[in-house]
Amino acid sequence: MERGEVVVTERELIPFSRPYRSAKELGNLAAVLASDHSHGDGPFTASASSRLREITGAGQVLLTTSATHALEMTTSLLGIGVGDEVILPSFTFPSAADAVARTGARCVFVDIDQATGSIDPAQVLEAIGPATRAISIMHYGGMPADLPSLTSIARDHGLPLIEDNAHGLGVPGLGTAGVLAVQSFHDTKNVHSGEGGALLINDFALVERAEIMREKGTNRSQFLRGQIDKYSWVEWGSSYLPSELNAAVLDSQLAEFDEIQRLRHAVWNRYSSELAEWADARGVVLMDPPGGIHAAHLFYLLLPDWSMQTEFIDSLRAQGVQATFHYVPLDTSAAGQRYGRTLRPLGQSEDFSRRLVRLPLWAGMPESFVSRVIDATRSFVPLR
After folding, report:
1. Is the pLDDT at 341 greater than 50, yes or no?
2. Cβ contacts of residue 186 below 8 Å, gap of 6+?
3. 206: which DSSP letter?
4. Can you tell me the distance from the alpha carbon of 250 to that of 239, in angstroms, rounded to the nearest whole number?
5. Is 305 left (phi over 0), alpha (psi -120 to 50) or beta?
6. Which three-class secondary structure state does DSSP give residue 47?
7. What is the spatial distance between Cα 71 and Cα 184, in angstroms, rounded to a whole number?
8. Looking at the structure, do residues 168 and 36 belong to the same domain, yes or no?
9. CA-based diameter of the chain, in Å?
10. pLDDT at residue 4, rounded to an integer
11. 199 & 345 share domain
């Protein structure tokens, strides 16, 4: 049995995702509870932050309670507010738009490049106007967005780039192209702490304000470093600091990052190779990262037409396999229409969303489960 595999019964429902269990997580938690320091900024916070700096290459890392909170920090740190606009993909998680809408700024939704599921640089360029204050991007599925084009556009127009790298931890260059970037450690991610996130800061001029914002608007971080003798309220902030218990779990996961990635890539590679002939024969498009670069965060396929998505998911479910769709484009949502606008109908995002199905993928997924998913996928016959 592979390290990290779980013992299962043959006909157990194959879940879409299962959180990884690291070897030292219980020991780390016990150490925190025995230390009388379960609030934030303890030794596990420091260790996990150091590991993240090493993995990402980011200038500074601040652990947060979620990637959503890290995204909120990005718009606040950049001074985005009423009357401003932020360009972002419609095909992304709502947190990216929430971070903009909460400031009173407007979301400008643009389309994606279907080769990656990430933002289309040509539409970003077209969407830039006098009210534009930032460009927010996501590396969908851990596949790099077109960073050469996007960084060039941002530089030429003097706009900060925000990277949502929730899917792409460990992919070289991701998390360091933007002024600010975020990571997610929700338990569906490759590395998790149950709930959690991180803010990656690549402009050191923003570090001090980010520390203050994260610590309820106080300069407590400076106090803990011995730089001041008392701490006080300095400016607006919130409670964005995770507990040492979350950090202890995260640190144990990051210590096994290479093994987690090896296990996930093994599953991804089997799907890619063993479903290729079936997909080609049935007009199905398999996830095909440009240059083969990805984080093995997910594996998706695009069905030939919209009508098949629900049929395919139901077919797999009947065979004990939990597959799922992904984002509904934000511009079509009630909140997206209230807080955002588009230049035109975003057909690529809608088409991608309505044809996409994600297959189960998690570290330690038994070989027998992978085989069952492949067999169930190959057996799909559309009703029409």
Report:
1. yes
2. 66, 67, 166, 192, 194, 195, 196, 197
3. G
4. 19
5. beta
6. helix
7. 10
8. yes
9. 73
10. 52
11. no
Domain closes at, from 228, 254, 280: 254
pLDDT of residue 37 exceeding 50, the answer is yes
Q: Are residues 224 and 306 in the same domain?
A: no
Burial class (CB in 10 A: 0-12, 13-18, 19+), 68: buried
Q: How far is CA 52 from CA 47, 80, 103, 240, in A?
A: 9, 27, 28, 18
C-alpha 220/C-alpha 230 separation (Å) is 8
Q: What is the pLDDT of residue 221?
A: 87
Q: What angle do CA 93, 97, 103 make, to 5 degrees?
A: 150
Nearest to 62 by CA among 181, 187, 238: 181
Same domain, 110 and 230: yes
Domain CATH number, residue 250 = 3.40.640.10
What DSSP state is assigned to residue 91? Answer: S
Does residue 98 lie within any of the structural domains? yes
How many residues comprise the chain?
Answer: 384
Domain ranges, residue 98: 25-254
Is the CB of residue 74 less than 8 Å from the CB of residue 99? yes
Domain end call among 217, 239, 254: 254
pLDDT tens per residue, range 301-335: 999 999 999 999 999 999 999 999 999 999 999 99
Flag whether 372 is in a domain.
yes
- Choose among 381, 302, 371: nearest CA to 140: 302
pLDDT at 196 over 60: yes
Task: Give the rounded percent of residues in the chain with a pLDDT score beyond 70.
Answer: 97
Domain count, the chain: 2
- Residue 293 near residue 341 (C-beta atoms within 8 A): no
Which region, left, alpha or beta, applies to residue 42 given φ > 0 means left and ψ of -120 to 50 means alpha?
beta
338 and 240 together in one domain: no
Which two three-digit tokens encode residue 150? Answer: 């996007």
Which token pair is 131? Answer: 């009210």
Contact 238, 218 (CB under 8 A): no
Q: Are 324 and 357 in contact (CB under 8 A)?
A: yes
- Residues 240, 271 share a domain: no
Mean pLDDT, the chain, rounded, equals 95
Q: Rounded to whole angstroms, how far apart are CA atoms 262 and 267? A: 9
In contact, 309 and 325? CB cutoff 8 Å: yes
